[in-house]
Amino acid sequence: MLRLTKKLLVFLITFGSYGLYHASRKALSGVKSSMKADWMSNVTHKPLFNSDSEAKAFLGSLDAVFMAAYALALFFWGVLGDRLDPKKVVAAGMVGSAITLTMFGTLPKWFNFYSVPYYIFTYILFGLVQACGWPSEIAIMANWFGKGNRGFVMGAWAACQPVGNIVGSIFTAAILPLGYEYTFLFNSALIFLGAGVVLLCIDSKPHEANYENLDGERRRRSSASSRNETEEESEPIGLIEAVFLPGVLAYCLCNACLKLVNYAFFFWLPLYLTEAYHWEESQADQLSIWYDIGGIAGSVVGGYITDRMGCRSPLIVGLLVCSVGSLFVYAHIGPYMFWNSLVMTTVGVTVSGPYNLIVGSISIDLGSQPALAGNSQAMSTVSGILDGTGSAGSALGQIIIPVVQDTFGWETVFYFFMGLNILAILAIAKRCLLDLKALRRYGMETTPLLDTEHDD
């Protein structure tokens, strides 16, 4: 009973902590219009930018440098997360995020200091410390939750990302009337407090708590001892070795395309709604949560379905196919709030849902596959590679998006997203075919989640 309580506590605290990571990233996304207006109308000094297109391009550059720093750091923190206590890595990233976010968004406004190099430098630092979170959170979850119902558990847990986005959007909309600088300050305070909760309330691995004595379950002593011996014999896997594990490269390529689209909605959706339909910024922030609500539904339901199927790639491919149609409809939906939010939710189900499954359930599948021969020191590394590759693609996209939008308009941006999702489908098409063959051979619920017999 105590073990179950501890597992629930780990689930909730890691869910909340990574939700705070995402909420803090949402701060800039929700105040872009306000920051842009401030940069261009500051009367104390010369305006930071002379035109709207220059300011928008710089905002895109900030998103890009954040994602580039985040991507590079993910490889580093992923490898380090298998060598250090992941709980401490998560907490360190949260404290660092609080400091750098305040430096970026609050201090320049308070001290009337507007500098392009300063904004770039502090947002790069923010990206570097934000990368502490995901690989180490995945490692903690993998330590506590086994293979049973992994898709549902990790699908529900990976919903921490859209939940964090929703909390960030609502929080930003509520604080924005005080001034955009306070959205950064209060987000920083929340994530700083969250770091203390992580350090004080959870263990990185089950065996760190003495469950035998607390529960009186002495029969666990021998199994825990043998597990510890196995873990001591395991060596952390190398970065290059992890890249060439079965299935890793295919999902990395898929995630490079899919994360670009998912994060484009994360970074640009409120600004798009403000510019395309002239809705108020706080109103756009609140409306944008429907994308994340769709992501939650797609992640949780998708995880449950893939558990029952015994494989994940066919559902992911099916959702991505549907995403092409939903993106086309959303590009032409027009300024009708009800229909806009409805189709936006569908886009969230078919884009954010598969993304959450890949970086959550698939990440653990790949980091614990038979090719690793029981090596438990690979989870954070594989997760860092998968998410780092996706972040690299997303970084490139944040440079391209404002250029495409400024040159051809928002409609063309959505066609760009459709093309990327088609490429994401092609990246895992072979994996999908192998899983479908295995599904026909073994039947539902008995299909190996990562059948590497015929994989390359």
Structure description:
The protein is mostly helical and 456 residues long. The protein has one domain: MFS general substrate transporter like domains (Growth Hormone, Chain: A, Up-down Bundle). 79% of the residues lie in helices and 0% in strands. It has 21 helices and no strands. Helix 14 packs antiparallel against helix 18 (337-367). It holds the Pfam family MFS_1.
Keywords for this structure?
transport, sugar transport, 456 residues
Blueprint of the fold:
Elements: H1 2-30, H2 32-41, H3 52-81, H4 86-105, H5 107-110, H6 116-130, H7 133-144, H8 150-158, H9 160-175, H10 180-201, H11 211-215, H12 220-233, H13 239-243, H14 248-277, H15 281-287, H16 289-309, H17 313-331, H18 337-367, H19 379-408, H20 410-427, H21 429-442
Helix pairs in contact: 1-4, 1-7, 1-9, 1-10, 1-14, 2-3, 3-6, 3-7, 3-19, 4-6, 4-7, 4-10, 7-19, 8-16, 8-18, 9-10, 9-15, 9-16, 14-15, 14-18, 14-19, 14-20, 16-18, 17-18, 17-20, 18-19, 19-20
